[in-house]
Amino acid sequence: MIRINLLAQKRRVEARRTEAGQGWLVAVSLVFLVELVGLFVFHGVKEEERADQLRKNKELEAQIDRSRKLVADHPVVQKELGELRAREDAIKQLQSARTGPTAVLLELSRLLTPGRGPTVSPDRLGHVRRDNPLAAFNAGWDPRRLWISSFVEQARKVKLEGMANDGEDVSELARRMNLSEYFANVVLLPGKQEKDKESGLEVVHFSLEAQVRY
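RE: above sequence
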């Protein structure tokens, strides 16, 4: 009679099942651990991205606040700039009023100085001599043939009165003034010829008006 120990075999089967269950549990635990570590890493990355985005948002908000402040101050800045420009213009006008009349009188002195002439650019003078020679000044004219008795300036408009030997002398003065950079719109007013009481010579009493530039 043969006896088979089934109990031992049953125990071996159960041991193998236990070992297999334990291995599966270890594998599941490892997978869960890996997933957990991955979640922690993913969470950390997202937190860094979130912190970086929050920093960028704060920088943008700061820029927006600065822009709003600049826009809010824009009318004030424009007003201050307008006041500064008006002040600069007033200073320039005062300086011009101080130096301008002096420059005009010096130019008139040059016009009436022998061997001198009007302040005019060589290019313009060349064009005048080429296009209309009669409008050019006479370099050989003797200014002592004419003298000024009155010079009145108001609102950048000047009126000259004086005497000359003849009408051509008056015309020469007008030509020089028209060419000068300091005068414009020269207009000869009606004059008269009479005998000078001191010299007894026939002279022309003249007057002219012009705009001054300075």
